[in-house]
Specification:
Number of helices: 10
Radius of gyration: 21 Å
Helix content: 40-55%
Strand order of the largest sheet: 3-2-1-4-5
Low-confidence stretches: none
Number of strands: 12
Shape: globular
Bound molecules: 5'-O-[(R)-(carboxyoxy)(hydroxy)phosphoryl]adenosine, zinc ion
Largest sheet: 5 strands, mixed
Order of helices and strands: EEEHHEHEHEEEHHHEEHEHEH
Oligomer: single chain
Length: 332
């Protein structure tokens, strides 16, 4: 059975064809990121217009790439929430039109749950598992006892982890999106140069707003002491920027990893699943890898192709729910 997945929650227009529940036949993504870069963040109106321009082409490419036609598609899955309202509307309207025109069942899906199950496109699911979703808008830990039975253990009280990467990059004048830029610069930095911490008590909740402010104050102090005037403003030595990036990244990675491990211990689960844009980060992947190995935990991190927003995770999650009759009511 073939499923068509459609994703338009933020700035990526995605379409994917899935065979059965996890055979990714195609996974096409068109990003409007470059149009948002000059503004230092995603502009909702630009994102919706970009979806409108590319959704037909992206869907056509996904079908062609998979070597199937609309007649072969038995289920359409579309991201229903959360996301930018205008962007979601484009994907949902398009998916509804397709399903009405071809008389195909349509499921609306939760974007975060799609990230949560993304690592199981390549790995067998073992229940129960703990899931860590780390994206630009969310940072959450779930206990999942069975397909569709997710219990929220904790989430962020303020900024999400990806949002903190983006805001820190903005403070340091590095550009957008912050995650990949900070990760690259951190490679040449000393992660022990500055002591940053993400402090949110002993539970399973997160907070990344304080660390962002701590970095801002440290940066201002360094500018006062070492700053030199340039055409673009005050600049500090590149090594200091690299050290700030490495120290910040280390603190965030440590917090995410320790809380994920704590969730594992508190639930007794033996598998940790990780998804979302921040799961692309190699430092996080490595730290989780060593902690899980030390503690005998099976780690399933989403393949890098399915970390950032994509339609394969949406199609696969929907097909899995449909196969086990655990889906919500059809949108059509
Ligand atoms: O999952 P995603 O594509 O979109 C949302 O659902 O929000 O995640 C985007 C977030 C951005 O905040 C971006 O800075 C972050 O993922 N990100 C990273 C890396 N690549 C993307 N964060 C840390 N390290 C990375 N390599
Ligand atoms: Zn996402």
């Amino acid at each position: 059975m073939y499923t068509l997945g459609i994703e338009t929650s933020c700035d990526e227009t995605g379409a994917a064809v899935i065979k059965n529940v996890s055979g990714v036949c195609s996974n096409v993504i068109s990003s409007s990121l470059a149009r948002h870069v000059p503004f230092g963040g995603v502009i909702p109106e630009i994102a919706s217009r970009a979806h409108l321009e590319s959704i037909s082409f992206v869907t056509d490419s996904a079908l062609k790439g998979a070597g199937v036609s609309l007649d072969d598609i038995k289920l359409i899955c579309v991201t229903e929430s959360p996301g930018l309202i205008g962007s979601l509307l484009v994907g949902i309207s398009f998916a509804k039109s397709l399903s009405i025109a071809t008389n195909t069942k349509l499921l609306g899906l939760d974007h975060l749950k799609a990230h949560l199950y993304a690592s199981f496109i390549d790995n067998k699911i073992n229940f129960p598992f703990v899931g860590l979703v780390v994206s630009g808008g969310h940072t959450s830990l779930y206990e999942v006892k069975n397909l569709g039975e997710e219990r929220l253990l904790g989430s962020t009280r303020d900024d999400a982890a990806g949002e903190a990467f983006d805001k820190v990059a903005k403070i340091l004048g590095l550009g957008y999106p912050g995650g990949p830029i900070i990760e690259k610069l951190a490679l040449n930095g000393n992660d022990k140069a500055y002591l940053f911490r993400c402090d949110c008590g002993k539970g399973l909740e997160f907070s990344f707003s304080g660390i962002k402010t701590a970095l801002l104050y440290k940066y201002r102090e360094l500018c006062r002491i070492y700053g030199k005037k340039s055409k673009t403003g005050i600049i500090i030595p590149e090594e200091m920027i690299a050290d700030l990036c490495a120290s910040f990244q280390k603190a965030v990675v440590e917090d995410l990893s320790q809380k994920a491990l704590k969730a594992i211990f508190s639930t007794g689960a033996k598998t940790l699943a990780v998804g979302g844009g921040v799961a692309f980060n190699n430092c996080l992947r490595e730290r989780l890898g060593s902690l899980c190995k030390e503690n005998g935990i099976r780690l399933c991190v989403a393949n890098k192709s399915y970390c950032l927003d994509n339609a394969a995770m949406v199609g696969s999650f929907g097909a899995r729910l449909f196969a086990e009759r655990k889906h919500k009511k059809f949108l059509f």
